[in-house]
Amino acid sequence: MKGSKMGNKGNGGLSPIRHHNFCAGPAALPTAVLERARDEMLDYRGHGLSVMEMSHRSPEYVAIAEKAEADLRELLAIPANYKVLFTQGGATQQFAAVPFNLLGQGGSANFVDTGIWSRKAIAEARHLFGDVHVAASSEAGGNTAVPRPEQLELSGDAGYLHYTANETIGGLAFDYTPRAMRPDGREVPLVCDMSSSILSGPLDVSRFGVIYAGAQKNIGPAGLVVVIVRDDLLDRARADMPSLFGYKALAEAGSMVNTPATYSWYLAGLVFEWLKDDIGGLSAMEAINARKAEKLYAAIDGSGLYSNPIATANRSRMNVPFVLADDRLDKPFLAEAEEAGLLNLKGHRSVGGMRASLYNAVPEAAVDALIDFMADFENRRG
Ligand SMILES: *Cc1c(COP(=O)(O)O)cnc(C)c1O
Questions:
Q1: What CATH number should be reported for the domain holding residue 265?
Q2: pLDDT digits (tens, 9 = 90+) for 66-76
Q3: Which residues are catalytic?
Q4: pLDDT digits (tens, 9 = 90+) for 264-291
């Protein structure tokens, strides 16, 4: 809100009861946002009820929803010819919704494969439509670097190109925005799963046909997915699509085809306000995120115990996986970290090791505390 910042200046201070949370998702939320939600919990701004108890059609709630969209549009400088949808089903539902919405006029789904989340999107498109094409893959190199632009080979019938900007599990991030160019020189829509990197810095939305992101990393609590879609793509849907998947219907109904995830949408709005008013926008957020990640990677690279295999240019600023030279130290590392108030550092069950997720709401002080702990652990046990 103008003139009344949420407090906890900077990147959200740490209250004595709140530990440092490095969870990959659902992830940390800014303390200032949770305090605001607490203050408004029983009586939302004098209306005498909680946001959770409001009709989604009431003027109070519609104002909350519209303010959230306006703030997101301002933060990302979303052009007027894009619709913003607040829908449900997780990013995983978009793995199906995207081909249903974009392949009504034929064509095949094309993908860049950079890791586990890309592969889940590929598997769902293949399951539904059979015919998919992998335009480039980083698998042969162990997913330690993303394919270079000149390695992308779309199929002649490509209907769109899908990629994952930041592989949350592998800690692998694109350092460029791909171009979705077919061999005949025709550009097709670029679709991006930005679940774990949206709002981490400024973005040129005009490069994309569809951007989608599950909320529980950088947007708000689970239960909400934000879809940003260029309006000329709204008429490409397949007729056999489940009606709740339809971008056009959602756009026309202000994302209220059915009851939306009202409370998650409200909290997302508070996060957008925090980014605008407390942080000062996405360029400021990007600078903080760069500092956080650079320090942690420097500590890893400078140690004899910890390592991260990702090519420097493709290291994720949001998810920093690392392994210990001796995996017998994993258990004591995690136990002692938790004792020191550093939570959720265990790597994804499919890859093991450690992972520190440094989303927007993780303050720089948390990263400093982690680095201190890691150095101390290495001195004692390494
Ligand atoms: C977390 C995540 C998903 C899955 O999100 P759900 O909301 O659980 O469906 C998909 N893609 C990426 C990149 C993610 O980080």
A1: 3.40.640.10
A2: 999 999 999 99
A3: 117, 193, 217
A4: 999 999 999 999 999 999 999 999 999 9
pTM (two decimals): 0.96
| Residue 153 within any structural domain of the chain | yes
How remote is the CA of residue 217 from the centroid of ligand 1, in Å? 9
Contact predicate 356/320, CB 8 Å: yes
Residue 350 has pLDDT above 90, yes or no: no
Q: How far is the CA of 169 from the centre of ligand 1 (A)?
A: 10
Atom of ligand 1 nearest to the CA of 216: 7
| 221 and 113 in a common domain | yes
The domain total for the chain is 2
Q: Are residues 266 and 195 in the same domain?
A: yes
Ligand 1: which of 88, 92, 217 to mutate, judged by most atoms within 8 Å of the beta carbon? 92
Rounded to an integer, the average pLDDT of 330-355 is: 95
CATH at 328: 3.90.1150.10
